[in-house]
Amino acid sequence: MFDALAPRYDLLNSVLSAGLDRRWRRLAAAACAVGPGSRVLDLACGSGRLSAELKARVGPGTVVGLDFSASMLEVARRSAQGPHWVRADAHRLPFSDASFDAVSVAFGLRNFAHPTQALEEMLRVLRPGGRAVVLEFVRPDPGLVGSVYRGYLRHGLPRIGGLLSGQGSAYRYLSDSVDSYRSSQELMGLARSAGWSGIEIRLLNLGTVGLLRGARA
Known about the structure:
By secondary structure, the chain is of the alpha/beta class. The chain has helices at residues 2-5, 9-16, 20-31, 49-58, 70-79, 115-124, 144-165, 168-179, 184-193; strands at 39-43, 62-67, 84-87, 100-106, 126-137, 197-204, 209-215.
């Protein structure tokens, strides 16, 4: 599915988020708290936008963008030259323990078959004191915002995404995956069960996007 979406993925993200996705990724990069010389792993990197933000922060350091979709990685290679691109499974990372200063994932956790296992893997490859960051849609609290948001997910997103991409079934899946996803407290609970420490979450976009941060003790 993501191979089919790859050619127009960035355009669709910008349209469907009214351009806010770039700001959210900048905030995620800042939350990684890395600087020149750092080593960073970006999971489910897609077209590489967050990986590129991270590379700008680490300078001569190393950023590895990892994804399971070969077509997404091809788009990433064309759009950002600095990071290293790796095709692999986020549930079984091909890296040794404590090999990165920060590990991130933006809008990919809900697509993992076993999210807790992926969060455990993030922690495993993180050095002690390093930062783990998840940027993800969250289910807002009941009320006006939640009702409007759910209406957009159920009706607006699939129609607009399908029209622009020609992949209506893919955007129906994406709509369903966001609509059924976890609350901010449930997302924090996943991180706790994976062994993260120092967990905190910042809610963005009227509580519909969560920026989850944690560390390896």
